[in-house]
Amino acid sequence: MKTQFEQMMDGLNDVESFLAGEQEGFKAYVPQEVDVKAIRNRLGMTQAKFSDTFGFSLDAIKHWEGGRRTPEAPARTLLTVIDKNPAAVLTALNPAAAVGSSKRTTVHASRHRERQASRGVTKRNAYSAGGKRVAK
After folding, report:
1. Which of the pair, 30 or 113, is modelled with greater confidence?
2. What region, left, alpha or beta, does residue 25 occupy, with left being phi > 0 and alpha being psi -120 to 50 degrees?
3. For 67, how many CA atoms within 13 A lie in the half-sphere containing its CB?
4. Which CATH architecture has domain 31-118?
5. How many angstroms separate the CA atoms of 93 and 67, rounded?
6. What pLDDT is recorded for position 30?
7. What is the crossing angle of helices 86-93 and 73-84, to 10°?
8. CA-CA distance, 57 to 99, in Å (whole number)?
9. Over the stretch 43-62, which tens digit does the pLDDT of each residue have?
């Protein structure tokens, strides 16, 4: 098995060959492991909500997170895109409802809460720009 550095160098060599016109196309890198639970938790979704939103079966989510099964390559690819850009996946899966979608809002609101929590902003500890405590 190749080291990560060797894999990266192979990828860079492929890009170089492609740009020089010596090679057509490229081979996409699909990660061997994807932490489904971490992705789902970052989005602030339950297993049921995650499966409904992105089209996975609830049983698959449970098996992946429980370590009883591993996602196949196409699922790992989709999970990687969900991890990096969930809004793009939501737009692609439901372009008509992308504007003002409650699913998109859910993902956005979850990230907003994470940012607030990381800055120490909670319902009990919210301050206005002037430094005065704001009752919530």
Report:
1. 30
2. left
3. 0
4. Orthogonal Bundle (1.10)
5. 27
6. 87
7. 110
8. 25
9. 999 999 999 999 999 999 99
**Residue-wise pLDDT tens digits, 94-135:** 877 655 544 444 454 444 445 445 555 443 443 334 444 444
| Both tokens assigned to 57 | 């079966």
More confident residue, 113 or 23: 23
CA 13 to chain centre: 28
Structure tokens given for 134? 């704001």
H/E run at residue 116:
helix 102-118
In tens, the pLDDT along 67-81 reads 999 999 999 999 999
Cα separation values, 88 from 9, 79, 82, 85, 95, Å: 29, 12, 8, 6, 10
- Between CA 133 and CA 98 the distance in angstroms is 36
Residue 71 CB: number of other CB atoms within 10 A? 21
Residue 95 to residue 22: CA distance in whole angstroms: 37
| DSSP 8-state secondary structure symbol assigned to residue 32 | S
